[in-house]
Structure formats: C-alpha cells, structure tokens
C-alpha cells in the first residue's frame, strides 16, 4: 500500500465494438431503477474520497453503525472500489496524507475535533476489506462450503419459499429489518453492520440456508465484491 502510485493511462486500446457502444439489453443485463445511484467514473470517485476526508468524515467513528447516519458519514467509496474507478492503494495513501495534515494542524494549536479518531477507524475498515478478500483467496471454498460443514449439515436448513420472499422483499413484520431491506432494494447500498443484521435474521431467525440468502444479497449490492 506504500508503493508509489501510478497515474492512470491517458488511453486504453480496447476491442473495436462498432460505431455504438453495446446497450445493457444487448448484453443481457437488466437495469435496476435505483434511487441515489452514485455518479459513475474516476472523477466522481475522487470527489467522493475528498468529500469524505475533508467534509463528511469527522463523525464517521460514531455514525457508521446507524443506517441513516451512515448514508452521509460513511465514505461511500465501495461502488468505486468494486469496479476499479479508484484503487485501494490511493484511498489508503490519501487517508494517511490527510491524517498527517491533521496532526500538523493540531501541533500548530488548531482544533481538529474527532477527525483523527474517525480516520483511524476508517483505516481499520479498509484493512478488514482486504482481509476478507484475501481470506477467500486463501480458502476459495468459503462461498460454497460452510466453515463448519458438520454443524451446517446437522442444522439441516431448507429453503422455505414464503419465508425467503418475506425476507428478500422486506415484509417480515419486523419494522427495523424491513426498513433496512427496503432501503437496500431501493439504493443498492446499506452500511456494513446492517448487512450483517440482514444475514443474521435470515440464518438465525428465519432458518434459511446461508448460501441462498448470500447469493441474493450479492445480487442486491451495488458494490458487491467476493469476500
């Protein structure tokens, strides 16, 4: 992560596709009518990073758990990282540079609020992101085989279509859960701890097979990455 950053190429020579770019329909991709869809592209990724490091990120440490506050105060970089609009190395280095700047301001007597604590927490989450992706690379069966196959077999969960549909559509009757699931359906994003809650409710409360619900969530996440 500390290696020198390489500037993006000015031009990439890709395959010739004809006079017009292929449409989503021609590629067999169904477009989802998401609300608050992130602006695509490298410039938007850079602006999102800078707004987090300089404007939105100070309450991050205390706001990342709640779904309503996380919408504003989490970095919101995950869609850009997942498709390569910005590299993890650049995010790490820009965060470190901002923290050095904040320490200099503090040493000069300026008040910096909760910035350093929040950016330190953010650095930890970046490490978690890479940790879980590396874990899947080290154990490539994790998306097919439970970590404890014996317990998984003994639990004998079966896919109940009615319970699965209620879970997937956010109509379980649990207000907080349903609100989070419907937010995910509408936007393609929800914060990390609510993602864990959605999965836990499926596995432990509704007794649904973990792989079926995991695949569904993967399709719902705008920022899905294996791991």
Keyphrases for this structure?
mainly alpha, 227 residues, 0% strand
Overview in brief:
The chain is mostly helical and 227 residues long.
**Strand segment count:** 0
**Percentage of residues in strands:** under 5%
- The global form is globular
Order of helices and strands: HHHHHHHHHHH
Amount of helix? 55-70%
Q: How far apart, in Å, are the first and last alpha carbons?
A: 19 Å
Rg (C-alpha, Å): 20 Å
Would you give the CATH topology of the largest domain? Answer: Serine Threonine Protein Phosphatase 5, Tetratricopeptide repeat
CATH class of the largest domain: Mainly Alpha
Largest sheet geometry: none
Tally of DSSP helical segments = 11
Count of the domains: 2
CATH 2nd-level architecture of the largest domain: Alpha Horseshoe
| Structural class by helix and strand composition | mainly alpha
Low-pLDDT segments, ≥5 res? none
Q: What's the pLDDT, averaged over the residues?
A: 92
